[in-house]
């Protein structure tokens, strides 16, 4: 039997409910022969530390919920601009896909800016989970669940090795 491949996701948000929604959407989008590791934190420093600890397949950042400590301290900008700079930093350093989301009155402006700095996708809050899962499938076609696969997403895998996931 083939050993399951790991698929690692870091969610930049403080809300465990949002982390769980992302985890379920990703689990539903991926082929079940993979182990899903999901960690969530709003802290930019911790996001970067986790990314240095193990390879990350996907970053999902709730842009207006990311907090900044050491990283970003010297940037003279508001937290949203720092979050956009974090997207650019993650793309240049880790090169994996970054999905961003935000909940602002002028989201259409933020979407354009997020995509220009390197985000692979942007979702306005609230978003449809099925549309999010389809975006994950499109970003990882070689690891995506086939439309004909009747097996349910292995939700037990969500908790395996996911110390930052508190559902």
Quick tags:
Rossmann fold, 5-stranded parallel sheet, alpha/beta, 167 residues, disordered C terminus, 5 strands, 6 helices
Could you walk me through the main structural features you see in this protein, from its secondary elements to its overall organization?
The protein is of the alpha/beta class and 167 residues long. It has a single domain, classed as Rossmann fold, CATH 3.40.50. It is built from six helices and five strands, in the order βαβαβαβαβαα. It has a five-stranded parallel beta sheet, sandwiched between helices. It starts with a strand and ends in an 8-residue tail after the last helix.
Write down the CATH class: Alpha Beta
User: How many domains make up the 3D coordinates?
Assistant: 1
Cα gyration radius (Å) = 15 Å
What is the end-to-end distance? Answer: 30 Å
Q: Which CATH architecture is right?
A: 3-Layer(aba) Sandwich
Q: What is the topology?
A:
Layout: E1 5-12, H1 16-29, E2 34-40, H2 44-53, E3 58-62, H3 79-94, E4 98-102, H4 107-117, E5 121-124, H5 129-139, H6 156-159
Parallel strand pairs: 1-2, 1-3, 3-4, 4-5
Helix pairs in contact: 1-5
Give a summary of the structure in a few sentences.
The chain has 167 residues and is of the alpha/beta class. It has helices spanning 16-29, 44-53, 79-94, 107-117, 129-139, 156-159; strands at 5-12, 34-40, 58-62, 98-102, 121-124.
